[in-house]
Specification:
single chain; alpha/beta; Rossmann fold; UDP-N-acetylmuramoyl-L-alanine:D-glutamate ligase; Protein-Tyrosine Phosphatase, Chain A; nine-stranded mixed sheet; globular
Length: 506
């Protein structure tokens, strides 16, 4: 199929028949792409190193072929297939042999988000327009902000859904027969790298977009911080209405200034300070909007208060920042301040995000296992100064020295877990040598979290918080960050039960 024919495929109702597409990976994302393409009439080959049995069973049913095997080199089945397009799951880095092969051979390389944008008109609104897209990225806070934004839009009477990196493929929402007014799309840097390959008049053009913050993460995937930063910056490309940025993170403003946007798009700032006339921020404990009102030079609209947020466990500074970002995105689609306030009254954080597990004898136990990088862990430590810090895991090439220097020195103690303990211990010895330090070696301890809780209980004092904020991935010891958090919570509850049982004895 000619390059011109492939480029013309920008509608669900275009003629996709005869298009040969290789889908790389068979996770939920890969299957959604294969299923969509099969429905469109394309010829689909799925290539993967391992296949979920259920997805593998369904592929022949939908009419797609499957190849399972090593992918350290380009398999003959792929070259023989001679695809017109390659659609890669986000797990395939730019350096992967199959990605290199596709680029060297000039084969169009899409992610599932690009495919979803091309077929977004399958179901349209009464006025004939497909759903507006709101894009959300950042090193931390993406999922919380995505959920918040969707909740606010729904409170404002819009049909909206959170999709993308949050778990539900964008293609599933695009194909929903009931349709939506807005899709709130969480994007990882991996998804953005693929999206940034797309240019031209039909490339994705969101209603609004935000990069919440930027810090070292996924460097092993991108190869450098500069490449990671450039991937994130692509979230603002071709934005039509609102480029929302973090005033407390200068690089996000620079991204907006450098972005090629649709004429008329506005830069909207947010932070925890007093807002300027195109910003959202705080005034005497009140969250206010000075961006989306005619009298913004002299007036502001109240959204909620920090006191109200505190009643629902939403008053940590980094959570308030996420709320302001979400409110800016929702306001860009016309959601009223009262509806935003109502949405916040109902909203609750995900499990494993600064989740208070228990309070026992004056000590709080907090699970922030989702803090898988230094930036997220730093936000948690700022919310709980002087905590007993449970830190460590798989560092993914990230150096924790700056975090230990800036936040670790103020902790009561640190309990270090994971395979990369040596680097963390060395950082404490250099930058926080007076902080009591404990190591838990998972090769010598059958139940890591039980030992962590024992150590934390010994050192914590009345009024302290024991904070699981690992600043690292979990896969060296646990199935996921959720598994890590669950095991921490189980160990805390078991320890408390044992203490209470001991107290009851005569």
């Amino acid at each position: 199929m000619s390059a011109e024919r492939v480029a013309s495929l920008t509608s669900w109702y275009a003629d996709w028949r005869g298009l040969k597409v290789a889908v790389l990976g068979l996770s939920v994302t890969g299957f959604s792409a294969a299923d969509t393409l099969a429905e469109l009439g394309a010829q689909v080959l799925v290539v993967t190193e391992k296949a979920d049995p259920e997805y593998a069973r369904l592929l022949p049913v939908i009419g797609a072929e499957l190849h399972v095997g090593p992918l350290d080199a380009v398999p003959a089945v792929l070259t023989d297939f001679a695809p017109d397009v390659v659609i890669a799951s986000p797990g395939f880095p730019p350096s992967h042999p199959l990605i290199v092969w596709a680029r060297e051979n000039g084969i169009p390389l899409w992610g599932d988000v690009e495919l979803a944008w091309r077929v977004r008109d399958k179901v349209v609104r009464p006025d004939g327009r497909p759903a507006d897209w709101i894009l959300i990225t950042g090193t931390n806070g993406k999922t919380t902000t995505t959920r918040l934004t969707a909740e606010m839009l729904v409170a404002g009477g819009l049909r909206a859904v959170p999709v993308g990196n949050i778990g539900t493929p964008v293609l599933d929402a695009v194909r929903d027969p009931n349709g939506f007014d807005a899709l709130v799309v969480e994007l990882s840097s991996h998804q953005l790298w693929y999206l940034n390959l797309q240019t031209g008049p039909d490339a994705l053009s969101p209603h609004a977009a935000v990069c919440l913050n930027l810090a070292d993460d996924h460097l092993e995937w991108h190869g450098s911080f500069a490449a990671y930063r450039d991937a994130k910056a692509g979230v603002y490309a071709r934005t039509r209405v609102a480029c929302v940025y973090n005033k407390a993170d200068l690089v996000t403003r620079e991204m907006v200034e450098e972005a090629e946007v649709v004429e008329g798009a506005r830069a909207i700032g947010f932070d925890l300070g007093v807002p300027g006339p195109s910003d959202l921020g705080l005034v005497d404990g009140i969250l206010v909007d000075r961006a989306f009102l005619e009298e913004r030079a002299t007036s502001a609209l109240e959204l909620t208060t920090v006191a109200d947020l505190a009643e629902h466990g939403l008053a940590a500074p980094h959570v308030v920042s996420n709320i302001l970002a979400a409110a800016a995105l929702a306001r860009s689609l016309g959601v009223a301040p009262g509806d935003i306030h109502d949405a916040l009254d109902r909203f609750r954080l995900d499990p494993h995000r600064i989740q208070v597990i228990a309070a026992h004898r004056g000590v709080r136990w907090v699970d922030d296992s989702k803090a898988t990088n230094p930036h997220a862990a730093g936000s948690s430590l700022a919310a709980y100064p002087g905590a007993v810090w449970v830190v460590g895991g798989l560092l993914k090439g990230v150096d924790l020295a700056d975090l230990v220097r800036s936040r670790g020195a103020a902790t009561r103690a640190a309990i270090v877990i994971g395979t990369d303990r040596g680097e963390i211990v060395a950082a404490f010895e250099r930058h926080a040598p007076t902080v009591p330090l404990f190591e838990v070696d998972h090769t010598e301890t059958e139940d890591v979290m039980a030992r962590v809780v024992e150590l934390a209980a010994d050192v914590a004092r009345d009024g302290d918080t024991v904070l699981l904020a690992p600043a690292a991935a979990s896969f060296d010891q646990f199935a996921s960050y959720a598994d890590r958090g669950d095991r921490f919570a189980e160990a805390v509850r078991a320890w408390i039960a044992g203490q209470d049982e001991g107290t009851d004895r005569p």
